[in-house]
Amino acid sequence: MIYLYDPQYSSQKKSLLREDDLNPNYLKHLRALRPDLGEKIAFLNFSGMAAKYEISSTRPLELSFVENIQKPEPQVKTHLYLAAPLGPALEQSIEQATETGYDVIHLLRSKHVQYPKNKELNFSRLKRIVEASCLQCGRFFAPEVKEEMIDFSRALQEAQEDVCIFADETSAGIVWGSEKNNPLVPSKKLSIFIGPEGGWSEEERMALREQSTVFSLGPHILRVPTAVVSAYVLAWKEVKK
After folding, report:
1. Check: CATH 2.40.240.20 for 2-70?
2. pLDDT at residue 95, as a whole number
């Protein structure tokens, strides 16, 4: 399956799409892929809808309508509170968070965060990374990237609404996942806090321990993009027990 983002076609039932109907950039992309006759293409709108087409002719390129697809929104949304790392690690973390399944991404300003206070984040670029990642993995809902860096205290207050966990590097090697056997039962929101590569401050760690479930991500201290994936997988494994 080839995934393309185009809200114009995601909810329509146009029986046949010809080359003149397609976005020139997508037409160029499809020609470069050299898809076979009968290969499926889905036009996504990143809000749960898609229109599936089948390649009925390669020269000239023609797409025949197959079906509309509607997927429901997740009942529990997973929020990532991420202490923004520097350089490529930030973009890798956004990419990994999208492909793993986070629904909302908050960039967090913690005490040891590496991202400079006077440096503006390029949110437009981060959103393009989200879109490209959604197309790569065929995700129907694009996660929302909040367009501001949020202070730690405010983030913790927001996360009081439901189940909250945080990755604690001081627990590395103790246990995989939760230190306790208490079940995680989120009703609407699961918040996951990933700290900076310099670690949480002692004050932040104490505040998180008061209202969160402590998670270990295994025997080693992970890089931020790896921690983003590990925390999601381990948290949802606990939820689904």
Report:
1. yes
2. 97
Q: Where are the domains of the chain?
A: 2-70, 77-239
DSSP string, 88-149: HHHHHHHHHHHHHT-SEEEEEE-TT--S-TT----HHHHHHHHHHHHHHHT-SBPPEEEEEE
Contact predicate 75/44, CB 8 Å:
no
Structural contact between residues 166 and 208, judged by C-beta atoms closer than 8 angstroms: yes
**What pLDDT does 185 receive?**
78
Of the candidates 61, 72, 52, the one whose C-alpha atom is nearest the C-alpha of residue 9 is 52
Please, which residues have CB within 8 angstroms of residue 120's CB and are 6 or more apart in sequence? none
Sign of the C-alpha dihedral, residues 19, 21, 22, 28?
Answer: positive
Distance between CA atoms of 232 and 101, rounded to whole angstroms? 8
Tokens of 145: 């990237």
The DSSP-derived string for 12-58 is: ---SEEEGGGS-HHHHHHHHHH-PPTT-EEEEE-SBSEEEEEEEEEE
**End-to-end CA distance of the chain, in Å?**
32
Residues with pLDDT less than 70, the chain: 12, 118, 161, 171-183, 241
Fold of 77-239: Alpha/beta knot (3.40.1280)
